Amino acid sequence: MIRFICSAVDKTGFPQTEKEIVFVGRSNVGKSSLINALYKQKLAYVGKTPGKTKLINFFDINGEYTAVDVPGYGYARRSKAEAVQFARMMDDYFSRKELIKLVVMIVDTRIGLTSDDLDMKEYLDLHDLNYVLAANKIDKLSNNELMNNKHRFFNGYDNVVYVSAEKKKNLDQLEAYIKAHL
Ligand SMILES: Nc1nc2c(ncn2[C@@H]2O[C@H](COP(=O)(O)OP(=O)(O)O)[C@@H](O)[C@H]2O)c(=O)[nH]1
Ligand SMILES: [Mg+2]
Fold first, then answer.
1. What integer pLDDT is reported at residue 47 of this predicted model?
2. Which numeric CATH code is attached to 2-180?
3. 31 C-alpha to ligand 2 centroid (Å)
4. Per-residue model confidence (pLDDT) at position 140
5. Looking at ligand 1, which atom is closest to the CA of residue 50?
6. 53 lines ligand 1 (CB under 6 A)
7. What is the pLDDT at residue 54?
8. What gap in Å lies between CA 93 and CA 8, rounded to an integer?
9. What residue ranges do the domains of the chain occupy?
10. What's the pLDDT at 153?
11. Atom 8 of ligand 1 has which residue's CA nearest to it?
């Protein structure tokens, strides 16, 4: 059974868990869609307004692990205060390092890693966190384009799964990757 545990804005609200798999990504990359597709239910809000979710959401996945949905990054924050609050929330969350088994970083297969994605990757490397790239929206590419983009954008990475949240493609590969890191 998959169950919503709670939402939190800071570490005072984080639940006690054992193993976490966290989903990160630029706003609009399809993070909510991917979470919903992977767990076959509407856990995350698929929205038209980028950056709407400002909470960290925790879900219990069959008692096996906790899936964590953190707010999207890389859109212009309304204010400095908002940006500072976001950074603090991320730092608070990622300080739970020993619980975090894998970070699923969702990127757009059509554009590869943007500078915001590279900042995120650097942050993960700095904190020594395991991550897998979920290169999403492959349904928007022809086979030939996909082959070219794999080569152009993802050549240096051995930890990539190419998926489509919308068409539910290769989600079993992502699931296997997650299971292997629990
Ligand atoms: N074609 C296509 N569209 C997608 C895919 N995943 C998400 N989208 C669309 O991209 C937009 C943003 O999706 P959402 O899940 O809200 O992204 P989030 O901001 O990262 O949570 C929505 O219009 C989705 O329908 C995908 O795999 N393929
Ligand atoms: Mg979302």
1. 65
2. 3.40.50.300
3. 5
4. 98
5. 19
6. no
7. 80
8. 10
9. 2-180
10. 98
11. 30
CA of 159 to the centre of ligand 2 (A): 23
pLDDT less than 70: residues of the chain: 47-53
Among all bound ligands, the one having the nearest atom to the CA of 47 is 1
- pLDDT at residue 50, rounded to an integer: 59
Ligand 1 atom at minimum distance from 46 CA: 16
CB atoms within 10 A of CB 149: 19
Q: Which among 22, 24, 26, 28 is the best mutation to test ligand 1's pocket, defined by most ligand atoms within 8 Å of the CB?
A: 28
